[in-house]
Amino acid sequence: MNIAIIGAGLIGRKRALALPKHFLKIICDIDKQKADYLAKEFKCEAETDWKKIIDNKNIDAVIISTTNNLLSKIATEAIKNGKHVLIEKPGGINKEQLLRTYNAYKKNPVVVMYGYNHRFHPALQRAKYLVDSKKYGSVLFIRARYGHGGRLGYEKDWRFNKELSGGGELIDQGCHLIDLVNFFCGPMDNSLGYTVTFFWKTNLEDAAFFQLKNEKNQLADLSVTCVEWKNIFSFEIMLKTAKIQIDGLGRSYGKEKLTLYEMNKKMGPPKIKEYSFPDIDVSWKKEIQTFVKKIKSSDISDSSIKDAMYVISIIDKIYKQNII
Asked: Could you tell me the CATH number of the domain that includes residue 19?
């Protein structure tokens, strides 16, 4: 299988590291120095024009790791040319962009997958197994916090340029939490949110606080921020007879672990089970393995596209509420 990566930034490099070495053939970036640097590291070709990647008949699949404004445009053209695509989250800056990609897919079905790698963290995979087992009943509510502290000059990053990103923290980290709620509960179409700028000198939000609810009265209470001076990932799932608490994503977010609190029949203190995981982020590799498996098995379902469209639709709704 011949794969090209478009976008030679931090995420492009993570994708390259996760790929089997003999799969990666070309790395593309408009910054020739970046493309050359990664191409040298991974012993493959370098390119600066993404359109040449799309037209290259020797390339079977494309991983798109650009700024948000280019994700849908490149993906749509790749699909039209019969390339399988793995598109970084959120897949575009609004639902209209993702819809164009979906329409291209419907005319020329290929494997289309959106890069929500958090689903592939071992603690979240374990939580999914526990929830789906129904051993502890249905999900009552989810509470989650996700935050980091940025870095010097962070307000000048492309993530705070609306034309490139589509928004601030809500679309950047918030999309992961919305996707995870969907992963565990399915769509929650009722939304209410606040977007706020607390610290960074920017016109876009550096924090978002929002709630989701569905017709089954399941709720999600979520917050994301880049004014969290100690990085945090906390994801709690309350079930009828147990609570699942996930803390950390490894490295700067702290050791990844899952704690299961099982309710006793007579109530009182719960039974506690703890699961710890290696301090190595395996999510990127597992996501790539899933993408490759889909290609090899000709799994061209539209589930990933629909999930990504759902996430961006919620983000659009919260932005349109204009609660600041």
From this structure: 3.40.50.720
Burial class (CB in 10 A: 0-12, 13-18, 19+), 199: middle
Mean pLDDT, rounded, for 78-84: 98
Query: How many structural domains are present in the chain?
Result: 2
Determine the structural domain holding residue 89 and report its residue range. 3-116
The two structure tokens encoding residue 295: 């290609």
Same domain, 166 and 240: yes
By the 10 Å C-beta count (0-12 exposed, 13-18 middle, 19+ buried), 24 is classed as buried
What value does the mean pLDDT take over residues 309-321? 96
List pLDDT tens digits, range 151-169.
999 999 999 999 999 999 9
SS3 232: strand
| pLDDT recorded at residue 279 | 86
Tell me how crowded residue 162 is: count the other CB atoms within 10 A of its CB.
16
Instruction: Give the end of a domain, one of 66, 94, 116.
Output: 116
